[in-house]
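Q: Structure tokens for this one, please.
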Amino acid sequence: MKVVVAPDKFKGSLTGAQAADAIAAGVRDVLADAEIVEVPVADGGEGTVAAAVAAGFELRTAAVAGPTGADHQAAFALRGSTAVVELASASGLDALPGGPDPLGATSRGTGDAIRAALDAGAREIVLGLGGSASTDGGAGLLVGLGARLLDESGAGLPDGGASLARLACVDLSGLDPRLVTTRFTLAADVDNPLLGVRGAAAVFGPQKGATPAQVSQLDAALARFVEVLDRVAGADCSGLAGQPGAGAAGGVGFAALALLGARRRSGFQVVAELVGLDAALAGADAAITGEGSLDEQTLGGKTPAGVAAAATDAGVPAHAVCGRSLLDDGARAAAGFASVVALTDYEPDPAVCMRDAAGLARRAGREIAQHLAERPAGGGGTIGSPRRAKELTP
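A: Here is the predicted structure, written as tokens:
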């Protein structure tokens, strides 16, 4: 029997690789002779670099400006001339040294990380967008790559989205010349535009601590950024601001589309290709995926849903292990899961569940394996209708 274990991270508890190790250990407890292929996956957000490293990329680190401008170490992954740069590592909410800074947080560190990747020989960069701390339209990203943002007096603007309200000129003459010959792919599932009621400030600003008044302030500042950039960028910035994905990562998607010639693709699909998920699923008898929470967001393109879809295409039944599940039987079936095992069904205390996540994930892997053992290898189909872990437990 061949079992593919392809989870995302369990945020706050396990990395994707740790989750895969734990689940795989549980499968081995029951199916000692099984071929188990561990393929940690991500969707462009936190954990994307780790998934690439688990697939054979080399882990690199770079000194960058954190989301508040303080010195910070960010990770990226390199294989040949391809680099994976994760915005969450350089400019993410988890990189904030203190509380949220909705008006002043910057994406500059992501530009620093891209430069480090270029220095390491990268000429194709996958930029994972997700978990950003800033709403600066990618202005900080451009500064990190050599641009200058100036006010009416010719002075440089401070970091952050709010300062863009005073933007008078964008000097692109200092942009790193290697950008012209570098291909950028945005790994992002967010399809929001930059501005307006579905824009970066309105939809994601509150998650970064912005009040309603600050949301309006940031949206107006981003509009000013588009207006000024339109004059100097040689691209239809106003049109690009309305493109799906321009609002990703606080508007970093916009800057990448407008200045880096980036192409946006599904974050999960990009990572799945990098880690060779389809090849791993070939000839498999079952796939086990998972993440911290299975909920409505999962159905919108998060890793477990992506793995389930890929497994279905390969004729492989997919099972999920999660910290908690908020999906009913119908939603689980529609997502393509043959079964779902939630760690909270073993340990209802969330704090204990997170603390003991590895042991509980191993238990979940063991339980799924017990049911896999009840049917012939290569039998196809599923091991039963979707059900809760407590209903799966013998």
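A few notes: The first strand starts at residue 2 and ends at 5. The chain has two domains: 2-39+285-392, 48-267.
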